[in-house]
Write a structure and sequence with these properties.
- Helix 2 packs across helix 3.
- It contains nine helices and 18 strands.
- Strand 12 (about 235-245) and strand 13 form a beta hairpin.
- It starts with a strand and ends in a 6-residue tail after the last strand.
- The protein is an alpha+beta fold and about 375 residues long.
């Protein structure tokens, strides 16, 4: 792929490594540039890296009216050798294409996606924040651009990659478990829909549920299936729980559950974790009974942003509280978090191919 570079003048872009004195937060900052590529006449074309800034888009663009848009979330890390590495970026590229297929968006070759992401990171590598636990958060996305008000797939699209220099998700340390609301009022997805994709509309539809959870002092809703009998997801994360023998249980992937790359990674790391990690259908009534009996001792969520989000308790709409174990972050959850983050940071070697070095093409 021949990428065109239309960069900011050197006087307007970062020329020294980013060394923030304060916590930079998660997902709020932007780097100097973004990657763009367009789809028209049946092919992806004009790959380019340009200054980060607003899009010019028609008011009738299909994405604005009918939500034909998908996205991904990934991370890159600075290792002790001074090089930047992306984590399992091939899995993100694969998932973006699966999401695109669900929304009738043309696929982008995985190798092209990865090259685009790495080229942008290399261009803006000075934006990596020199801060403990930091990363470059990577947001690739595709949106429909055709100016048309009929409800049908667009014939034109834009693929964009943007970067966000981010600090640790847990700025105060990995010590504060969250609470989840168990409710029958909200459902993330139903069979035959878009639940297994990262469609933009899925996340817009979750905002009302998140607002309701906050009214109960909860961080998110524990989503149930449409029959209100099975556990599915935790807000924007996969759910997990841990039995007293150390076994990690993740709800079985279906077309109503997004296949978390973090969950997939733990399923593949089972032996290294020293415990069994498996998937099964999780019935809500049995889950509650097992928490109450002490059979389930820890629980939480898996996702790219937080990696592992420990859950200390669940609250029902009648204000009953179900506490998991002692309500604190348990040792098994800590080990999960430590194992994966050490691989990401390069402190220990991960499975072959998980970490990909961003080559220096612009030195």
């Amino acid at each position: 792929m021949q990428i065109a570079y239309d960069l900011k003048p050197s006087s307007e872009r970062r020329t020294e490594q980013f060394k923030p004195k304060d916590d930079v937060g998660f997902g709020t900052l932007r780097t100097d540039h973004m990657f763009l590529m367009d789809y028209r006449d049946g092919q992806w074309c004009e790959p380019r890296i340009v200054p980060y800034g607003p899009f010019q888009i028609a008011p009738g663009a299909v994405a604005l009216h009918y939500g034909q848009s998908v996205f991904e979330g990934a991370k890159a890390f600075l290792h002790d050798d001074g090089e930047i590495y992306t984590f399992r970026i091939d899995k993100n590229a694969q998932r973006l294409n699966r999401s695109a297929d669900t929304l009738c968006i043309p696929a982008i070759d995985e190798a092209i996606q990865i090259e685009a992401i790495h080229a942008l990171i290399d261009t803006d590598r000075l934006w990596f924040p020199m801060q403990q636990g930091a990363c470059l958060y990577i947001r690739p996305f595709i949106f429909a651009t055709q100016d048309r008000l009929s409800v049908s797939p667009s014939e034109t699209y834009t693929f964009c990659v943007m970067l966000s220099p981010s600090g640790p998700y847990y700025s105060d340390g990995f010590d504060a478990p969250i609470r989840l609301l168990i409710t029958e009022r909200f459902h993330r997805a139903v069979a035959g829909g878009t639940g297994a994709s990262k469609a933009a509309g899925n996340y817009a539809a979750s905002l009302q549920a998140g607002k309701a959870a906050a009214e109960y002092g909860a961080a998110q809703v524990l989503y149930l299936d449409a029959t209100n009998t099975q556990i599915e997801e935790v807000g924007a994360m996969n759910h997990f729980h841990i039995l007293k023998d150390g076994t990690v249980i993740i709800p079985r992937f279906t077309d109503t559950i997004l296949k978390s790359i973090t969950s997939e990674s733990f399923l593949e790391l089972g032996e290294r974790l020293g415990c069994e990690v498996r998937q099964e259908t999780v019935k809500l009534d049995q889950f509650i009974a097992d928490v109450e009996s002490g059979e389930i001792i820890e629980a939480g969520g898996f996702g790219t942003a937080a990696v592992v989000s420990p859950v200390g308790s669940y609250i029902f709409e009648d204000n009953r509280v179900l506490t998991v174990g002692d309500g604190q972050v348990g040792p098994h959850t800590r080990k999960l978090y430590q194992t994966l983050t050490e691989i990401q940071k390069g402190a220990v070697a991960g499975p072959e191919g998980w970490m990909r070095q961003v080559s220096r093409r612009n030195d």
